[in-house]
């Protein structure tokens, strides 16, 4: 793409081609052009990039359940939940998710992104104040925008800053505190004890998006909130099925009044086709495996400890995370790209995360560990990372 002439752009912004060229040129000039790699079946690389934390996405029992669901109900659900798309298998899955998280009810959404948009849009309006952790997922920020709510962002995982903002809020306004459970790019866990007590003190509701904790944390994989915090402490719990559960979709869990409200008012729930029944059937099987095979979580924790000890010895720039998300903070965008290419050449697939997904100067390799891995693959990864580091010293 040729460099963009700013003068021409401003004169022609009413033209679609000019608009597209303007944005493409800006993105390229900032070095932020996004590329999609096509993953082919039979790819031999070891995957340290996906969110398949329990290694369930390729489990034959789950694939078989997906086929069974499709055979019984068809490849697609054919309609939204409120028309005719809500099959018995969706219903069973919702009931199982509610039991698993210790909530009265659960409601399925087609993706986690839509669940977050749906909750915020249905609960909030311009009379509502939303308090968000600075590092919350994009879907939470977008949801508050869609709701036209007033948002305040507190310093990451900082209860004092949250208190400061809440103290300034006008009395009588509805308040919603929103946080990732496990932060997707840092891997750290939200300070839930502090958040629940601050929320109670300030008469706020607390919404936790446990996309990366659900299935991974807790004795039975109920996540960082799950059964530990009751629904009068964490009123809105969001979990996704496309990560540890290895399938797709998401759910919101809470009291019946919350779920009924979402069914009535959450537009990303109402106006979209229900998840394919095969996916619901696969998720039901996956949830049951997740609950009954705690050894997957134990193995994963063992790999996390092994990786951290080896990476620390190797002097790699680890972040403070106890979850399967183990980012290496490299800072510089070009450096991140160089390391990820070198790792790919050695048969290791690792996510390269750059601004705007993270703040400027905070580019990182997002390494994710999975119960699929073994100690040998972790050692191979650490050796390859050490090679990247040594290569730099010799440059
Ligand atoms: N919340 C968080 C914290 C996430 O990291 C993601 C996806 N990466 C989502 C929500 C969106 O979930 P989904 O991929 O199911 O849309």
Automatic annotation (TrEMBL):
List membrane-spanning regions: none
Write down the chemical reaction(s) this protein catalyses.
Answer: 6-carboxyhexanoyl-[ACP] + L-alanine + H(+) = (8S)-8-amino-7-oxononanoate + holo-[ACP] + CO2
Its recorded name reads 8-amino-7-oxononanoate synthase
Report the EC number(s), separated by commas if there are several: 2.3.1.47
Complex and partners = Homodimer.
Q: Which family does it belong to?
A: Belongs to the class-II pyridoxal-phosphate-dependent aminotransferase family. BioF subfamily.
Q: Where along this sequence does the record place binding of substrate? A: 34, 137, 357
In terms of SUPFAM superfamilies, this protein maps to: PLP-dependent transferases
Question: In UniProt terms, what function does this protein have?
Answer: Catalyzes the decarboxylative condensation of pimeloyl-[acyl-carrier protein] and L-alanine to produce 8-amino-7-oxononanoate (AON), [acyl-carrier protein], and carbon dioxide.
The scientific name of the source species is Halomonas huangheensis
Q: Which NCBIfam families match?
A: bioF
Keyword Transport appears in the UniProt entry: no
Entry's Gene Ontology BP terms: biotin biosynthetic process
Pathway assignment: Cofactor biosynthesis; biotin biosynthesis
């Amino acid at each position: 793409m040729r460099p963009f002439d700013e003068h021409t752009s401003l004169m022609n912004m009413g033209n679609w081609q000019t608009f597209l060229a303007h944005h493409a040129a800006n993105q390229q000039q900032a070095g932020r052009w996004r590329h999609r790699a096509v993953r082919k079946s039979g790819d031999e690389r070891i995957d340290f990039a996906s969110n398949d934390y329990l290694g369930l996405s390729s489990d034959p029992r789950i694939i078989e359940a997906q086929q069974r669901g499709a055979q019984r109900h068809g490849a697609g659900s054919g309609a939204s939940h409120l028309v005719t798309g809500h099959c018995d298998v969706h219903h069973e899955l919702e009931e199982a998710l509610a039991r698993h998280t210790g909530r009265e009810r659960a409601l399925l959404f087609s993706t986690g992104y839509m669940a977050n948009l749906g909750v915020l849009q249905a609960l909030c309006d311009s009379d509502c104040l939303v308090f968000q952790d600075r590092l919350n997922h994009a879907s939470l920020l977008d949801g508050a925008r869609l709701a036209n709510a007033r948002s305040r962002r507190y310093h990451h995982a900082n209860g004092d800053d949250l208190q400061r903002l809440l103290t300034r809020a006008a009395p009588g306004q509805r308040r919603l505190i929103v946080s990732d459970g496990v932060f997707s790019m840092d891997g750290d866990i939200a300070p839930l004890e502090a958040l629940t007590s601050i929320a109670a003190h300030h008469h706020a509701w607390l919404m936790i998006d446990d996309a990366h904790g659900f299935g991974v944390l807790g004795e039975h994989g109920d996540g960082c909130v799950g059964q530990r915090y009751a629904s009068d402490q964490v009123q809105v719990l969001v979990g996704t099925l496309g990560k540890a559960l290895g399938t797709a979709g998401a759910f919101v869990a809470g009291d019946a009044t919350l779920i009924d409200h979402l069914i009535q008012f959450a537009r990303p729930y109402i106006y979209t086709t229900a998840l394919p029944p095969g996916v619901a059937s696969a998720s039901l099987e996956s949830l049951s495996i997740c609950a009954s095979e705690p050894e997957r979580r134990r193995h994963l924790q063992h790999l996390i400890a092994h990786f951290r000890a080896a990476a620390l010895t190797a002097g790699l720039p680890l972040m403070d995370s106890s979850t399967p998300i183990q980012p290496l903070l490299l800072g510089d965008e070009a450096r991140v790209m160089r390391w990820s290419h070198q790792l790919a050449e050695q048969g290791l697939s690792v996510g390269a995360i750059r601004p705007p997904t993270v703040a400027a100067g905070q580019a990182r390799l997002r390494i994710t560990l999975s119960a699929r891995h073994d100690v040998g693959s972790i050692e191979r990864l650490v050796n390859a990372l050490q090679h990247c580091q040594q290569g730099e010293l010799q440059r």
